[in-house]
Amino acid sequence: MDKNEEQFIKQELLLRDYLASERTMMSVDRTFLAYIRTSLTLFIAGISFIKFFDSYIIQVLGWLLIPVAIFTFVLGVHRSMEMTTIINERAKENGYRVDSPSSIVRQPLYTLTNFLRDTLRAIYRSFLPATHHHERRS
Question: For residue 28, what are the domain limits?
């Protein structure tokens, strides 16, 4: 095998790996969008059941669908973030450089989710009693 052939094979493998990683990230985006679609459908169905039906059972079902929709949305955000982290960690472990930009679909929600998480943690910590960091350990 001459040098040109070897270089061509390396370039071909790099291209194949790059395209595979792009397909993987697009599948994460598709799954995330499916979670959003499902949560919106559940939410709208819940609102519709509450507003348009007089049956007590159907209204209760509507009220139950709303928290299920919120849970589905949060689960989708969590799983999408988790899968992206796992994919990036495995790529780095195997020596690949992760340089693909963040998804247009997920990045704004990640930013909002991180902001909300940090805000809730700060509020939670404000209610905890102060701890002394310089206490001696025995």
Answer: 10-127
Spatial neighbors of 79 by CB under 8 A, at least 6 apart, are: 31, 32, 35
In a domain, 4, yes or no: no
- Most confident region among 26-35, 64-73, 106-115, 116-125 by mean pLDDT: 64-73
- Average pLDDT over the chain, rounded to an integer: 77
Number of structural domains in the chain: 1
Q: Is the residue at 108 inside a domain?
A: yes
The model's confidence at residue 138, banded by pLDDT at 50, 70 and 90, is very low
* Amino acid identity, position 44: I
Of 123 and 61, the structure prediction assigns the larger pLDDT to: 61
Q: How far apart are CA 43 and CA 38, in angstroms?
A: 9
Q: What is the DSSP string of the chain?
A: --HHHHHHHHHHHHHHHHHHHHHHHHHHHHHHHHHHHHHHHHHHHHHHHHHH---HHHHHHHHHHHHHHHHHHHHHHHHHHHHHHHHHHHHHHTT----PPPPTTTHHHHHHHHHHHHHHHHHHHHHSPP--TTPPP-
Other CB atoms within a 10 A radius of the CB of residue 62 amount to 19
